[in-house]
Amino acid sequence: MLTPCLCVLLSSEVLAQVPVSNRALGVLSITTSPAGATVELVDPQARPSKGTTPLTIPLAVVGQWKVKAVKEGFGVEETTVDVRPDETTSLSVPLRLAVALAVTAFPADAHVTVTGPNFHGDGGLPWMADGLTAGSYAVKV
Fold first, then answer.
1. Would you tell me how many other CB atoms lie within 10 Å of the CB of residue 141?
2. What is the pTM of this model?
């Protein structure tokens, strides 16, 4: 008889330590295009988790979530999303194809600087980078 009371008491103490604002929950639904991406999440309490899209978290802590979507052949996409209490928050993450870029020129030891979507790189020629996000890049030799 003492054990059930002790368990209830411990549970009440644990619940009493959780701030009232963090007790609110919502639903977080994440999709990617194309589907099947690995999603790395960090909730408002800095707890990491991972899943595969489409992904639904039915008991999501309210607040700002960090979301990182990764799929082979596509660039990494990162964003944040705010989950609201008693609501379903839907996040759609379009993935862009990853590309490679090679720069060759004369003279072979010239310096090159490349900038583009979430990228900056520099070095000597020949120069190459892969896994880049599709988009416009500025190349300065």
1. 14
2. 0.62
